[in-house]
Amino acid sequence: MSGKTNDFLIVSKSILPEAILKTAMVKELLAKGDADTINDAVERVGLSRSAYYKYKDGVFPFYEASHERIITISLILENKAGVLSHVLNFIASVKGNVLTINQGIPLQGVANVSISIETVGMADTPENLLAGLGEIIGVRKIEVIGQT
After folding, report:
1. Residues of the chain predicted below pLDDT 70
2. Of these four, 67, 71, 93, 112, which has the most CB atoms within 10 Å of its CB?
């Protein structure tokens, strides 16, 4: 680790301690206006105020951490006409700015594609972008491989 205060990791929720997950829930309740105060929110999720204050500045939803950034995704696409075009059209529909596209030669009916997308000005969150891409027929797998 470089020791910078802006270092981020993408970590599965399934391996995080309960206090960090509950901190994220508190922040979501407050952001959505479903809780009026921090006290109300921490009581609703069963978290102490001290734990909330300990973690609050280091816990962000993926879409918030990637706001105004570049995300790079890896996709495995079926080797069928139009699949990559549908992917690119969907990215454009949410106002994602495609910076780079790298596609390997299709092998065994699938092609590996990596796409770097600038998220500044996107009409939706990166989480919803990924979910929407996953619904496209011919997209077999999506993985975030980096963000800056």
Report:
1. 1-8, 61-68
2. 71
